[in-house]
Amino acid sequence: MSQTLSNLFLSIGKPVKDEYGRSVGRIISFASTPSGKFDTAYIELSDGRFTKQPIESINFNGADIILLSKIKSKAAVFCDQIPFIWRKDNALKELNEKRKISPVLCTELHNNFSAVLTQLRKDAQILIDETIQGIARCDEELSTLSYSLLHLELEHEIGKIADDTYRLAYLSLQETLKRTSNEKSDLETTKSKLSSMLLGDAPPAVVVADKKPAAYVPSANDATELPEPPVVVYVKEVGKAGI
């Protein structure tokens, strides 16, 4: 992200939200490298705590300052790097088969690519586990919100809650349900992309001299669960509640 010095400092004190519209806090300051490049933003969270975030994880879009999802950002890196390393390893195999590279150098480079791929795939699997935890958290929140909406409806129906109070609470719950549903959908999409990538990125065996390539055997890290179908929460419109 390219930002001038003046533009960034104009953001100090401005509110920060996440990708789903939730309030995160406000920009307090920035840090830069000795060369003058901004690399860190300091944010005062809504509960009074402070956090620092890499400048790449923040989107400055006019008056809106959006803190991007760490999971989605990391997933984008893995979905770019893993296929790229795989293609390089495949190209190495082709060069070796055409005898355009020495067997010793071919083996060395293949081992390097394999080590990088193994680590990337382990890290991607850890991220998949994080998405699973995030989906479970969203499910729990959606369930709680649904019960909250149900009790709000019951109390309003028997006259314990005034119409104006009910309307404000109802709209707030609807908005929160929408944000949580959107977050869960994003997490499920991210998990699906990562899982598909890990199941399909098996690196080719590199042949040295005239030896036949060994058959590829999927490792335990290659197998991941497919995403579960999304949970749909149905809530009625305000107009149907008698408002």
Protein described:
With 243 residues, the protein is α+β, with helices and mostly antiparallel strands. It has 2 domains: 5-67, PRC-barrel domain (SH3 type barrels), CATH 2.30.30; 70-241. It is 52% helix and 14% strand. The chain has a 6-stranded mixed β-sheet. β5 and β6 (64-67) form a beta hairpin. The chain is flat.
Number of strands: 6
Helix content class: 40-55%
Unreliable segments of 5+ consecutive residues:
202-243
Form type: flat
Span between termini: 46 Å
Counting structural domains, the number is 2
Return the structural class. alpha+beta
How many helices? The count is 4
Major beta sheet, strand line-up = 4-3-2-1-6-5
* Average predicted local confidence, pLDDT: 83
Give the topology string: H per helix, E per strand.
HEEEEEEHHH
Strand percentage: 5-15%
